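Project outcomes to date are best conveyed with an example. Our students and postdoctoral researchers have been running inverse folding experiments weekly, and each run begins with a structure described purely in tokens. The record below, which covers 227 residues, was selected by the lab manager from last quarter's runs and is presented without edits.
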């Protein structure tokens, strides 16, 4: 199974208001394992970058003016992603911009059902908890110390790690057969799971612990969790 974890950086929030994509970063996963194949492209947005965006992206008009415009790289991007599922944090935002750029090129839109939204997954698994990429990095112990500015490729690499934790960790194969020698479950390619060398750090924050304790206290002494 091939998946593409991707992120875009843009000049603003609305393509219909003239905002454009300035950077695309994408990481290839096969059977939930990063292959090392990536796509990264800076893009000339053919407009000025808003002043407030400079501090976020670290990019400016002078930096971007020598890069190709989207219609010069759009097909190469489509060739890279192929027909793979697209893993995106807050997928509606990135898909909105990608589809606008593709439409302006006269190319077909990407169907929304191709997108796997990690923001939606996180909100479903941890309702009421922060679900930003930085918050999920803290929850899962993913190192994002180099994320001092937004960058599409770096964010895609970090998101790939977060995504694997959200879906239960790395699983190179789900095709399990019995190992007659010792009864262990092994993959058809000879892979078998091993324990983590070190347990994951606790994922509950102190605020979550306190909220849980307060909830249990409201149930009274007859509650199962109080016994």
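After processing, the design step wrote out the following sequence:
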């Amino acid at each position: 199974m091939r998946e593409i974890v991707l992120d875009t950086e843009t000049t603003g929030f609305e393509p219909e208001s003239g905002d454009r994509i300035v950077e695309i970063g994408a990481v290839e996963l096969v059977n939930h394992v990063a292959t090392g194949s990536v796509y990264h492209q800076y893009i000339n947005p053919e407009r000025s970058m808003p002043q407030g965006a400079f501090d976020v992206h670290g990019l400016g008009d002078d930096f971007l003016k020598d890069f190709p415009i989207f219609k010069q790289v759009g097909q190469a991007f489509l060739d890279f992603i192929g027909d793979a599922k697209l893993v995106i944090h807050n997928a509606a935002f990135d898909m909105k911009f990608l589809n606008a750029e593709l439409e302006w090129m006269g190319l077909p839109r990407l169907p929304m059902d191709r997108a796997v939204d990690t923001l939606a997954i996180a909100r479903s698994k941890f309702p009421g908890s922060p679900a930003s990429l930085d918050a999920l990095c803290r929850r899962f112990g993913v190192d994002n110390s180099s994320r001092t500015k937004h960058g599409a490729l770096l964010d895609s690499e970090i998101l790939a790690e977060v995504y694997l934790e959200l879906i239960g960790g790395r699983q190179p194969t789900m095709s399990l057969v019995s190992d007659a020698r010792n009864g262990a479950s092994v993959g058809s390619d000879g892979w078998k799971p091993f324990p983590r060398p070190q347990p994951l750090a606790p994922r509950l924050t102190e605020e979550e612990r306190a909220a849980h304790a307060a909830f249990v206290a409201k149930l009274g002494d007859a509650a199962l969790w109080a016994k």
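The longest strand covers residues 21-30. The chain has eight helices and seven strands. The training component of this project remains on track.
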